[in-house]
Structures are given as structure tokens and as C-alpha cells.
Design a protein that fits this description.
Blueprint lengths: L4 E4 L20 H11 L19 H9 L3 E6 L8 H12 L8 E3 L10 E4 L16 E4 L8 H8 L1
Parallel strand pairs: 1-2, 1-4, 2-3, 4-5
């Protein structure tokens, strides 16, 4: 029997994504602030940002639990104008989720094109909201009233 596939978004689901410049790691905060003011770009496009991000509470433990029942992949979108973000995300996975294994990170701007049973994602962007359009698929909206945190997601999926 083949295990069901579960896709996990990174930013805002597994990874604490700063909403403002003041929430960015202090090691790059002022450089990022100056760059944003100079370019008018969003802080998520700042090179090196994704290398400094921390895991969400309970995320690593949730991944381990899910791996006991499902085939787990990370399905994330790398900001197109931040050319280092894909590499930074890969290094983040190696650092914080070494037990996940190699080649389990998929970067896509069209999450709805992937086949699998579940997508845990916090935003409808990049096709996440269309993921449940196909039979046997379900978008689990992380951070919603129904799934506010990792414990609620684990309770549902396990």
C-alpha cells in the first residue's frame, strides 16, 4: 500500500515568517531596512532573509509524527525576485529538518499542480486554494479557526 502524500508549506507554517522589518533577525535587520527604503521592495525579497528564519513552535515535531503515517514533502514558493531564497530554503530544511531526508523540498508557484492527499498551507496564494479541487485532495488552512496550530493539524491527520 502506498502512503498518502502530505505537502507542507514553509513560510508561516513550518517557518516563522516576519510580517514586518522589526521582526527580522537582528543580524540583517538594519541592512534589510536600508535596502527596502532604497529599492521600495518588500522585505521578503531581501537576499539572505530566508537563511535567518526560525521554525514555528511544534513544526519539527509535527513533521516527525507525520512521517510515521504519510510521505511528507515540503511545497513552498520562493519569492521570484529573491534569487537566493530557494537555496536558503534548502539550507533551512537541512538545518532544522535533517530527519526529513534529501530531495523533499519542492519549490513551485503552482501548488495546485501537485498530486497528493493534503496540503497544509496558511494562504490561498500560488494555487493553494485550488489544491482541494481534485477528488481525494484537501487544503488544510493552517492558522484558521479550524487549524490554528500544529497540534490541531496533527490531531486531524493522525
Amino acid at each position: 500500500m502506498t502512503e498518502k502524500l502530505v505537502y507542507l508549506d514553509m513560510d508561516g507554517v513550518l517557518v516563522e515568517l516576519p510580517q514586518t522589518i522589526d521582526e527580522i533577525d537582528e543580524s540583517i535587520r538594519e541592512s534589510c531596512r536600508a535596502w527596502c527604503e532604497l529599492t521600495g521592495e518588500h522585505h521578503s525579497d531581501f537576499e539572505g532573509l530566508f537563511a535567518t528564519l526560525k521554525p514555528m513552535d511544534g513544526a519539527a515535531e509535527a513533521v516527525e509524527l507525520l512521517m510515521n503515517k504519510y510521505e511528507v514533502y515540503l511545497l513552498s514558493t520562493a519569492p521570484y525576485d529573491n534569487t537566493n531564497s530557494g537555496s536558503d530554503k534548502r539550507r533551512w530544511v537541512e538545518k532544522y529538518l535533517p530527519h526529513l531526508g534529501r530531495k523533499k523540498l519542492i519549490l513551485s508557484h503552482r501548488k495546485d499542480l501537485n498530486r497528493g492527499a493534503y496540503l497544509v498551507d496558511d494562504r490561498p496564494n500560488n494555487g493553494a486554494d485550488k489544491f482541494g479541487s481534485y477528488e481525494g485532495q484537501e487544503w488544510i488552512k493552517f492558522g484558521s479557526d479550524e487549524f490554528p496550530d500544529w497540534s490541531s493539524v496533527i490531531e486531524y491527520l493522525m
